[in-house]
Design goal:
Elements lengths: L9 E7 L6 H16 L4 E10 L7 E12 L11 H11 L7 E5 L1 H10 L6 E7 L2 H17 L3 E6 L5 E8 L1 H7 L3 H12 L2 E8 L2 E7 L3 H4 L2 H5 L2 E3 L5 E3 L4 E8 L4 E3 L2 E10 L4 H15 L7 E5 L1 H31 L2 H8 L1 H16 L5 H30 L4 H11 L1 H20 L5 H47 L20
Antiparallel strand pairs: 1-3, 1-4, 2-3, 5-14, 5-15, 6-14, 7-12, 8-9, 10-11, 13-14
Helix pairs in contact: 10-11, 10-13, 11-13, 11-16, 12-13, 12-16, 13-14, 13-15, 13-16, 14-16, 15-16
């Protein structure tokens, strides 16, 4: 996952109704929803905001509302022990409200998600193509797939259809017969349905525009619109019904766009499961069951998008960190084999960190990944302390076996001191349950678990590996000396005594 879900001490319930709902009915449904949530003993107060203006981070229509639930202290909870259980209870209680779709998040988390990607859920599947109807059909199929994947919660499609509209379909043959242009029909409809300045009211230096339009009772009446008259070029008045067909229909409330094309959005949260495996299973099922037409593509967003971006950066940062550590080790020891030997503490530490995450039921996220980077530095430091002391003993004249044995004994206390100081300092973070501890807990758990295995293996395995490595290097050096050919020296010829001939 990207980051652990923080406990902000409050819950935000996003409610969605049909886009054609009236304001009075929306308020009534919101009041009913508030009553249900306020009945829980864990709730301190509830506040609803219906819609949002264009000045907000993301505008919302009157058919959408944000229900802010302020909770009491965790010690007063009786319905559930954690926020996940309380959200499940809220979800079950709100199922009795007809025509309302709900999703759960937290106020700060929602604002951050909106600012980053515009998607207020853990996973958002964008279906992008030029055809809006095709997008809607594919989004329905993907929604059915997500609902079958374990771990899904609040799965829904971004509401786009359902707004009441009055469609005026002009008859061009009738327009030609009466001598009326499309612009004149449009002007008459705009005057009745919209607001158009007909004249000005002069009050001293002020000029106030006077708008003319139909009363509200007639604006939604198709028969009243059919009686609207349009002036022809000859000056006659013709009813709009003779020039166009007027029907009451429904249409899209909003049309989302992505990269210049139309978009439909499938939303889903994840509960009781890590985000990475959930999305991987959804991708696998979508690829097997959905065939995308030409010109249609999918984009995966939400928290999953942030998680993929963070892991891609860590895939570069972690190897660079290990490379930098190796270069510093080589500068200290001047030996590639010994530098690699000290780096074996990294997998020693990795084992313990992953084991503690598994034992505590924590997911691998950005916080835990940063904890691994800090853990690698401490583990390598212990290895440097051990190997450098063994090298110093050998330089002082000790044999290899004595240097390994004495070095392990001498550096027992320094290694334990370094590990205990670092691990005990993280214990309060690992056991904390206060708000905000969700981010600290994976980091501290990784460091503590990694230091346990790294310290044990540093004291036991590293000296053994050092002995084996140095013995192998020494034997290889002797073999190279024995295989080296004896250099040829030409014999020195001395002069023979006088009178003696060579044989």
């Amino acid at each position: 996952e990207f980051m652990p879900r923080l406990d902000e001490g409050s819950i935000l319930i996003t409610t969605r109704r049909l886009p054609s709902i009236a304001l009075a009915e929306a308020v009534e449904i919101s009041t009913q929803t508030e009553r249900i949530i306020r009945a829980f003993p864990e709730v301190k107060t509830v506040v609803t905001k219906e819609g949002r203006p264009d000045l907000a981070t993301e505008a919302m229509g009157l058919f959408e509302g944000d229900l802010y639930v302020i909770l009491k202290d965790r010690s007063e909870w009786t319905t559930a022990e954690d926020p996940e259980g309380l959200v499940a209870a809220f979800d079950s209680a709100l199922a009795v409200v007809p025509g309302v779709e709900v999703s759960f998040t937290q106020p700060l988390a929602m604002r951050i998600d909106e600012a980053e990607s515009g998607i207020r859920s853990d996973l958002g599947v964008k279906v992008v193509s030029p055809d809006l109807e095709r997008n809607a059909a594919l989004a329905e199929r993907i929604l059915r797939i997500i609902e079958r994947v374990p771990g899904n919660a609040d799965a829904t499609i971004e509401i786009a259809d359902g707004t009441g509209q009055v469609a005026v379909r002009v008859n061009r043959d009738a327009l030609a017969a009466f001598g009326v242009s499309v612009a004149e029909v449009q002007r008459a409809v705009e005057l009745a349905m919209g607001a158009r300045v007909a004249t000005e009211l002069v009050e001293g230096p002020r000029r106030v525009g006077v708008a003319v339009r139909y009363p509200d009772a007639y604006r939604n009446d198709v028969h009243a619109l059919e009686a609207l008259t349009v002036r022809t070029s000859a000056g006659a008045l013709v009813p709009l019904s003779a020039l166009a067909q007027i029907v009451s229909t429904t249409g899209p409330e909003l049309i989302g766009h992505e990269d210049g094309q139309r978009r439909s959005l499938v939303l889903s949260n994840v509960r009781g499961r890590d985000l990475g495996s959930f999305v991987s299973e959804v991708k696998r099922r979508v690829a097997a069951e959905v065939s995308l037409p030409a010109g249609t593509f999918l984009e995966w967003g939400g928290q999953y998008e942030n998680q993929q971006r963070a892991m891609a950066r860590l895939a570069v940062v972690v190897p660079l960190s290990l490379l930098l550590i190796f270069l510093l080790l080589f500068a200290s020891f001047g030996s590639v084999p010994q530098s690699v030997l000290v780096l074996t503490n990294v997998p020693f530490a990795l084992v313990g960190g992953i084991a503690v995450l598994w034992l505590r039921g924590l997911n691998l996220n950005l916080s835990a990944s940063i904890g691994f980077i800090a853990l690698f530095g401490i583990a390598v430091l212990n290895g440097v302390v051990m190997v450098s002391h063994m090298n110093a003993l050998r330089t002082a004249g000790a044999s290899l076996a004595d240097a390994v044995r004495q070095g392990a004994v001498d550096r027992l206390r320094p290694v334990l001191m370094t590990a205990l100081v670092a691990s005990l300092g993280f214990v309060p973070m690992a056991l904390s349950t206060s708000p905000g501890s969700e981010v600290q807990r994976p980091l501290a758990s990784v460091v503590i678990g990694g230091l346990v295995t790294s310290t044990l293996l540093t004291l036991l395995v590293l000296p053994t590996l050092y002995l084996a490595l140095m013995s192998w290097l020494h034997a290889r050096h002797l073999d190279e000396d024995e295989d080296e050919p004896t250099p040829y020296h030409a014999p020195v010829l001395e002069p023979l005594p006088a009178g003696q001939r060579p044989v």
